[in-house]
Inverse folding.
């Protein structure tokens, strides 16, 4: 059976980088998009697909004998939406000459969706456990993407989910997927909030995912229609959750925690440590981020980059008041976490009094559903806009958004009449 590497993070914590470092290893198949387990609508009916919304590893009793039904897959792939403002991410992550996380380069790739469906239909009657169900899904996916070119030996599959820290039943994950691992990053809160604020500001100014034309940093710094306190809360709640999960599953066992900054600055040391824990043969290819074998040029915020770079730009997009508020509420715990020089982090060594809501989460952790509901509500509103009167910056944002629209007309036309040639955009 396949061993799983589950990158269970929260948003804007660099989980994509780790997935991309695993991408070209001969023993590993790494998805080009975020994926995970089932959304837990039973616990949290009005899930809005944002961080904190619970997900779960299902029971085999939920399986009706049809893999397509179990994974809610359609016989025919939905047609891509081309209309400006209505573009969406691809559920498979691969289109003709398109990879979801390949933001800056042209790629030659394709996904045979019909082959994917046919394989799953064929395997539907031959699975007898949750592990076998997901093995069938992953095997079918990588067989259908470029005729298995990115499958490797399929000893490991990398799954990255930026809401994965809020898997409701980690215990079941480790029980169902034997000899599998969970990797969770911690990122400095100021760079986390700077990244999230930049994303929100780009949407506010109409720039969306495109790096050019870029929204100048001074405009991002002036942007204030977001809830800073909510973002601080999400980070603090997630750190407490990580601490309690380490108490439950032990430090340095199958639930591994690392600092994003170590992944960037001490890549080889950290990757060697991770490989040692996973039983994965270390290879220097693990130091080169790739996507489907192509060099990965970075995320949608910082522009195209070669190799691995630590972008510390928070002072360019956060104003003095924001930085002071963040420091006031988090500096103590940040200093403690980052004083540890070990690459794999042990939060259980830190006195519980230093954590934001330790007693509350500790009292709830024995009840999976209650803990999931609490965590979900901790994230409510963290991407909501504050209601404000129309200001000068709002007028600038409106004008800038129209400018972005005009620039994108040729791209939309190219996508419409020459599919697979134009750049997609979905946020």
């Amino acid at each position: 059976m396949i061993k799983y590497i589950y990158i269970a993070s929260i948003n804007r914590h660099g989980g994509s980088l780790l997935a991309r470092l695993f991408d070209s290893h001969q023993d590993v198949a790494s998805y080009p998009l975020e994926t995970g387990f089932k959304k837990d609508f039973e616990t949290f009916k009005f899930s809005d697909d944002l961080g904190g919304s619970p997900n779960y590893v299902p029971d085999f009793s939920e399986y009706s004998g049809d893999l397509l039904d179990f994974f809610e897959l359609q016989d025919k792939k939905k047609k891509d939406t081309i209309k400006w403002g209505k573009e969406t991410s691809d559920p498979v992550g691969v289109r003709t000459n398109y990879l979801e996380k390949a933001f800056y380069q042209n790629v030659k790739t394709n996904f045979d969706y019909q082959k994917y469906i046919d394989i799953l239909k064929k395997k539907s009657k031959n699975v007898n456990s949750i592990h076998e169900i997901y093995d069938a899904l992953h095997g079918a996916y990588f067989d259908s993407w470029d005729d298995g070119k990115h499958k490797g030996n399929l000893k490991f599959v990398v799954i990255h989910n930026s809401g994965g820290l809020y898997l409701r039943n980690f215990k079941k994950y480790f029980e169902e997927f034997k000899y599998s691992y969970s990797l969770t990053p911690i990122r400095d809160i100021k760079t986390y909030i700077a990244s999230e604020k930049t994303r929100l500001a780009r949407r506010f100014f109409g720039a969306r995912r495109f790096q050019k034309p870029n929204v100048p940093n001074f405009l991002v710094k002036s942007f204030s229609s977001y809830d800073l306190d909510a973002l601080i809360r999400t980070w603090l709640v997630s750190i407490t959750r990580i601490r309690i999960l380490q108490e439950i599953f032990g430090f340095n066992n199958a639930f591994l925690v690392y600092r994003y900054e170590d992944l960037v600055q001490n890549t080889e040391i950290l990757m060697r440590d991770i490989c040692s824990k996973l039983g994965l043969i270390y290879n220097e290819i693990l130091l080169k981020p790739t996507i489907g074998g192509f060099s990965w040029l970075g995320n949608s915020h910082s522009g195209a980059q070669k190799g691995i770079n630590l972008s510390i730009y928070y002072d360019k997009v956060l104003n003095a008041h924001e930085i002071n508020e963040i420091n006031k509420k988090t500096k103590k715990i940040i200093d403690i976490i980052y004083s540890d020089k070990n690459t794999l982090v042990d939060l259980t060594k830190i006195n519980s009094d230093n954590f934001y809501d330790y007693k509350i989460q500790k009292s709830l952790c024995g009840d999976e559903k209650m803990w999931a509901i609490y965590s979900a509500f901790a994230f409510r509103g963290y991407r909501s806009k504050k209601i404000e009167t129309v200001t000068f910056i709002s007028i600038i944002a409106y004008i800038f958004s129209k400018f972005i629209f005009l620039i994108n007309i040729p791209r939309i036309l190219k996508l419409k009449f020459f599919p697979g040639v134009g750049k997609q955009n979905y946020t």
In short: Residues 333 and 339 are 10 Å apart (CA to CA). The chain has 15 helices and eleven strands. The chain has a mean pLDDT of 92. Residues 3-188+242-312+344-352 form a domain with the Rossmann fold fold (CATH 3.40.50).
